[in-house]
Amino acid sequence: MAKNRLEYALILLCTALFYICFVGYLSFYVFMLTLILPLFSLLCSLPAMLGVRAELHAAVDSTHKGESLPLRLQIRTSFFLPGGRVKLQLQLRNTLTGEETGESFSLTAGHAPVRIEHRLASEHCGRLIFRISELRVYDYLGLFSFRKRQKRGDSFTALCYPKVHPIFPGLLPSTLPDLDGDRYSTVRSGDDPSEIFGLRDYREGDRLSRIHWKLSEKSGKTLVKELSLPISTRLLFLLDLNGDSGELDCLLDVLASLSAFLAAQELPHRIQYRGSGGMGGADILREDDLPLLWKELLCAGRRKPSQPLLEPGQALPSGITHAVLLCSQLQPEALSVLRDAMPSARLTVLAPQGCLPIPELNVFGAELLRLDPEKLPESLSGFML
Amino acid sequence: MRTKPNLPAPSSGLSLDKPRMLVRAAPFFSQFLFFTVLLFLGTAGTFGCFLTAFSFPVSLGFLALTALGGAVLFSLLYLQKKRRPLWTLAGLLLWCGLLLFFYQDAFYGLLRAINEVITAYVEKTGLGLTTIPVARTTPKQLELAYSVFFAFLLSLFQWALGWSLIRQGSILSAFLLSGFFLAIPMVFSILPHRAAIALLLLFWAALLLYRPFLGGPHSIAEEEGRFSLSGSASGARVSSLLLLVSAAFLIVLLSSVFPKTEYERSETVDRVRSGLLNGFDFPSFFQGNNPGGSTSQVSLEFSGDRSYTGKTMLRVNTSKLGSDYLKGFAGSVYDGKSWTLLPEEDAAQLSSLLEGERVQVLPGRLHELLGGYSSSGYAEYSLSVQNVGANPRCVYLPYGLLPGEAPDPEFKDVDDAFTKAGNSVFGLKEYQVQAMTEEAPDSFYSRFFLSVPGAALHESHPELIPDTTGVEGSELESWFPSSPLLELLSEPVSEFSQTFQKYTDFVYSRYTQLPVELYPVLRNYLEEHGLLPEYFDSTQELASAIIGQVQSECAYTLTPGRPPAGRDFVEYFLFENKEGYCVHFATTVTVLLRAAGVPARYAEGYVIPPGYTQEGWIDIPDSNAHAWTELYLTGAGWVPIEATPGQNFSLHESQPELSAVSPSPSPESSMPSSSEESSPSQPASSAPSATSAPDPADPERGSSTPGRNSVEPSALAKTGSSGLLLFLGILSVPFVLFLLLFLQRKIRLSIRRKRCSLRDRNRAALHRYAHIKKLILYGNKFLTHVSGLSEELEELVMKARFSQHMLTSEELGAIADFEKQLENLLEERLFPPLCLYCKYILVLF
């Protein structure tokens, strides 16, 4: 706009000089026309400027590291006349790693939409937010402009998932579910008759022993008992969302790989993570539980260095026999809290290669496994859950 | 890397690839109609202006059809994508074929058109241009020839216009193309028809409004994360022509709101134009230190040796014969090294006591209110002045200005001392005033009682008339009417008398002031030489005696040298140096009079030499710049007295039979320049009387219609053509400069490219090395630190310089890569102004 204003100032100066030097009505007329033209331009272009709309679309809302995601940006004006130039500033941000990039476009908005196709890719996991940070519309002469605010369609969110590696750790007996335990799944039914999970209508093929005769008589329809599923979450993964992008990627890949393996084996385990918003987590019983967890995890921001990973007295699940701490930096306080909460559990720390051991590891009897991001399966060979 | 503040620096984790643009262009027919209308409008406007300006007799219908046809054809040609070169070639062949067929008519039309243009130029400007000899023909054939020629020219124009609008989307090219044809008549103010101008203006307005969507081929330009999309031909639709209609409406509305019949050019604009045409007289602007060239102060410490060139400073046309003082400046306060104006508080006090009276027209007011003192001694005259070489902010006015009905805005009074130009930026180059000469008495007493009101009082109230028996003349000079007398006078006379009395008291208190350390010195001098007021009958006699004494002791010279720093100017001149010119004498006499208790001022300006008889304008050269003393007399106000020896300028001369006199007498010729101009009552050293008598041989010579000091605006005789030339000249300077910069850069880059791609790789490497050294030098100058060549590259350069073996392509490539890196580094990191400087002036990259 500065360039256009400078050009207009130059034209105005020329017509002013013409008016001064040339004695006649023509010079005055041309000077007045030059003075009035910007106002006229603004009035004519105002409807088109007000009608400008910019929208972001994408075919899918998730991707994996290194894979590209097609995006489409569409700009048009609802007025039948074309508008002046439009300048957009686009901002792409990974909320987990804090990375940002951006670009700007300058184009003319017409009644027919202008579509711009892009492919975006992220080398790191996280939540990618792609938004129109600024939309500025100009009049025909490019002298006046204002910011256009939009209510819809100016941002798009996609999740970039970690990569699942073919990791096959060994399973210790303590990892297997304890069928004598007194915890039952609240989301799935099982075969344990000691607790009724729920009641449902009779379906063909149900065993007669499962029919709840009493309630069926009362309700007038055949009701079948669903038995409960005993669970014993013996395995805890505790993820520290801290570190640089590469380290976080490494930890997330490992977690995703281990969790996928366990979920595939239908081995229940608990995943907890510490992000900027505090502690979050979920019990993973099967593969279907993973997407929801990853959605929440990737949307969580990085833990701030001032926030501790585990606070003293922090409530942790009971019955854990093996706690796996995934972090990029060892924290003695966290190890201490873990050991206090689980005095008899096995402690394993998975950390990227650059992480240095600390004396507290021996104090708390924790085992450190260093991870090579390029060779994750090899890094975890011999690892026993 | 330089990035805009609100665009985050690109990080390595996130990446966006190069975007692809999908634009649905407007339908072909819609675009075709749009561009056809635009092309036709541009052609009609451009050629309409050209043809109507020179009134070419053409077949308008034929040309209009040609224009329309051309617009259609060229729109089709440039819009369609397939086989365009073939169509272009076909069109070109057709055009050439038709030209060959109609060659005679076209060529004849060309020649006649050139002649027509030349004839119009000659008529407008009087330039001595010759036309091309061409056989005459019948009007019908002439019309045919013109029509054929312009049809071909028009088609060429449309081809170029279509290419720039449709293919390139370049508004500037379209402006320049159409502007060129308008400039041909307009350069000499040959105006085209209004309708044609309106069409062309509409076309230009359309170009500006359509600029956002008149792009060329679709493209995306990228620069550091910023993408610019051009070529949005989606806007080139029939519906967009509504903008054109609106613009046409605006043009018509504007001519209705500001109709030509009611148009009046502003005076301010005319003044600016005058200033531009006359160049604002910059040299004169700095002429403050030459005599008569100051409006604020005169610095005496720089009054050293003086010389004159004879350059004409003023041109005057006066109906008064005889000499005249044209005062440009009067100094009120003397501080030992300069003459300055009254201090602010004194000026404020003066303004309040004057109550609107102007001291500059005091003699005129005295005459107006009290009537003429001596009927034979009164004459009015007009004086016109053209300031051709002096400071335009100075206004040189004679004594005896006639008061007008209202203060003239062209002038601005400076306290009670002098007048300067009202326009402090451009000054005043030409003006005309009415003035009078009158033989006035020394005292108000004499003036009053010899006037009509005074004479009437003699008869009606003789008891109120003071008895002047035994009263000395100097005491009478301070007489003013008492209250009983004032009550008997008319209100204007009474008010004026009271104001005049207050002003006189002010004058006596301010204009007798001197530096404290100088006063006793001068007082002693006056006492030693018997020059005190009590020894003389009148102030004028005292003044004459002081002047005579100074002139007898000091000699006139133009090379007295500067006074030593810190010394009082008068003290050094009067007691030590004893040599000087008008400034020295006038200053000394003024301060001596002040020391004697007589109000006096220093004045400078120009003098009209005595005795010129030629009518019309006379030239006043720089050697006529002069300084003199002003004496205050209650009967006449401030009157000039001559303090410099050898000057016979006087306001009291009458020499009708004087022969031709040099209009610029050298001040060194102390005798009158012509023996015929001797005035018996005027020895060179005598103090002249306050006013001059009119020429008795031609009493009407000096009379002029009484009236205000009106200033008639000068007849600014420049025609519009010089104005437009000036305008074009001013406009073309930056363009020419830019063009030269651009061209020299291209040439230098091309030379460097050739040198760096020589087949002799060693020489090419050395050229590159020289450029690298330059880049490093300026890089270190403008940036913090730029790393130099690595050891390997240095070795390569040494090899290129001294070895018999040729560098390999890879080795040369390494040097070229480093050179490129440095260029990119400088281009990215330098601040924009420095970058432009390095790019266009130093041509580093």
Please report the distance between the alpha carbons of the first and last residues of chain B: 17 Å
**Shape of chain A, please?**
elongated
CATH topology of the largest domain in chain A: Immunoglobulin-like
Question: Helical content of chain A, roughly?
Answer: 25-40%
How much of the polypeptide of chain A forms β-strand, as a percent range?
25-35%
Largest sheet of chain B: 4 strands, antiparallel
How would you name the oligomeric state of the polypeptide chains in this document? heterodimer
End-to-end separation of chain A in angstroms reads 63 Å
Most extensive chain contact?
A-B, 68 and 67 residues
Number of helices in the DSSP assignment of chain A: 8
* Poorly predicted parts of chain A: none
Rg from Cα of chain A: 32 Å
Layout of helices and strands:
The complex is a heterodimer of chains A (385) and B (845).
Chain A: H1 2-21, H2 25-50, E1 52-58, E2 62-64, E3 68-77, E4 85-94, E5 100-108, E6 114-122, E7 126-138, E8 145-147, E9 155-161, E10 184-190, E11 192-201, H3 213-219, E12 223-230, E13 235-240, H4 245-264, E14 269-275, E15 278-284, H5 289-299, E16 322-326, H6 332-341, E17 346-352, H7 360-363, E18 366-371, H8 376-379
Parallel strand pairs in A: 2-9, 13-14, 13-16, 16-17, 17-18
Antiparallel strand pairs in A: 1-3, 3-6, 4-5, 4-7, 7-8, 7-9, 10-12, 11-12, 14-15
Helix pairs in contact in A: 1-2
Chain B: E1 14-16, E2 20-23, H1 28-54, H2 60-79, H3 84-101, H4 103-125, H5 139-167, H6 171-186, H7 194-210, E3 219-223, E4 226-230, H8 241-257, H9 267-277, H10 282-285, E5 297-299, E6 312-318, E7 324-331, E8 333-334, E9 338-340, H11 344-354, H12 362-370, E10 379-387, E11 411-414, E12 418-421, E13 430-437, H13 444-449, H14 452-460, H15 473-476, H16 483-488, H17 491-510, H18 519-528, H19 539-553, E14 555-556, H20 569-577, E15 579-580, H21 582-595, E16 600-608, E17 618-621, E18 625-633, E19 637-641, H22 720-756, H23 761-782, H24 791-802, H25 809-829, H26 832-841
Parallel strand pairs in B: 14-15
Antiparallel strand pairs in B: 3-4, 5-9, 6-10, 6-17, 7-16, 8-9, 10-13, 11-12, 16-18, 18-19
